[in-house]
Amino acid sequence: MDQAQSRALEALQPFIHLTTSSTASSPRFVANIIANATSNPNTYVFAELLETPAVQALRSSETPEEFRGYLKLLEIFAWGTWQEYQETAGLPALNNEQALKLRLLSLLTLSSTLRPLTYQGLMQALSITSAAELESLVTTAIYSSLIVARLSPATNPPTVNVTAVAPLRDVRAQTVSAMISILSEWEDRCGDIINGIEAEIAKIKDQTVKNAIMDRQRTAALEKAIADWDGESNENTTGAAGLRGKNVKHGVRQAKAGFRPGSSSAAGGTSNKREYSADDLEDEDDGYFENGSDGGLDVYGSRMDIDEGLGGSSSTGRATGPAAARQTKRLLGVGRKT
C-alpha cells in the first residue's frame, strides 16, 4: 500500500513542474494540466498540485467561467466522491479515464466509511447499473493495489469484503484544524497515562526499598536471637547433662538389683519387693525350669511380688533369698528339668 502512494506521488511530479514553469500563466494551460493529471492512470493524490499558485489563480474573478470549474474538479479528485461530482453544477464533463479514476477514488472512501459494503449500496453510490460492472471495478482496484478485498456474490445480500485500503485520499483543508484538535486531545490523554505509570513505578520502587530494609532488620534480629539462644542452651545442657548422667547410673544400679520404682529400701530390716518375670527364672534356674513334660503351669510373662530379705528367713518365719525363689517355683508347679 505504501508503494502505491509513492508511485502516485512520483506520477504527479511532472504536472507540478509544468504549473510552476513560466508558461503556466494562461488559465487554459492550467486547465489542460488538471485534465491530464486526473486522466493519468497512476495519479491518485492531488494536494501538491492544488497548492501551486497557478492552480489557485483559477479562483480569481478574472478567470473565465469555463475554466473556474477545473479547480473544483481537482478538489473533488483530491478528497471528494462520485456523488459529490454528480451533485455539483458547472463542472467540466469527464472522459472515460477520468470517470474510472473518480469511481476508483470514491471506492476507497466508501470502503472506509460504508458498512456493510453491499453490491446495492456501491452500485447506487457509483452510478453503476450492473453487478458485473461493479465486480470489474473492484477487480481493477484490487490489481492496482488500491484495496485488499474479496467479492462475495453468493451471500445475501452480495457484499464486497474489504480488509485494507491504500492511503491515497487527500484531506480537506477544513478538517485539518479538527484533526489537530483530536490529536492534541489524544496526546494529552497519553501524557496523563504516562505520568500515572511513572508515578506507580516510583511508588513500587520506594516500597521495594522499604521492604528490603525491613527484611534486613528482621534477618539481623533473627540471627541475634539464634546466637543468644545457643549460648543459653549450651550452659543449660552442661548443667543438665551431669544430672541426667547421675540419674541414669542410679537407674542402672536399681535395675541390676531388681528394684522397682517406689519400692522400699532393704536397709533397716524391712522387706524389699522385687518383680519377677520369666527372664528372672531363666537367670536363676537351680534345677527347676518352666513347663516340664508333666504339663505344669506356664509362667512366662507372669509377675509376682516376692518378699526377700537379706537373710535366709524373715521375722515371720518365711523363707527368703534363693530359698524363697525355689519354694515359689515349687508352689507354682514348675517341674524339674529332665
TrEMBL record:
<feature type="compositionally biased region" description="Acidic residues">
    <location>
        <begin position="278"/>
        <end position="288"/>
    </location>
</feature>
<feature type="domain" description="PCI">
    <location>
        <begin position="4"/>
        <end position="165"/>
    </location>
</feature>
<comment type="similarity">
    <text>Belongs to the CSN7/EIF3M family. CSN7 subfamily.</text>
</comment>
<feature type="region of interest" description="Disordered">
    <location>
        <begin position="254"/>
        <end position="338"/>
    </location>
</feature>
<dbReference type="GO" id="GO:0008180">
    <property type="term" value="C:COP9 signalosome"/>
</dbReference>
<keyword id="KW-0736">Signalosome</keyword>
<dbReference type="InterPro" id="IPR000717">
    <property type="entry name" value="PCI_dom"/>
</dbReference>
<feature type="compositionally biased region" description="Polar residues">
    <location>
        <begin position="262"/>
        <end position="271"/>
    </location>
</feature>
<protein>
    <submittedName>
        <fullName>COP9 signalosome complex subunit 7</fullName>
    </submittedName>
</protein>
<dbReference type="InterPro" id="IPR045237">
    <property type="entry name" value="COPS7/eIF3m"/>
</dbReference>
<dbReference type="Pfam" id="PF22061">
    <property type="entry name" value="CSN7_HB_subdom"/>
</dbReference>
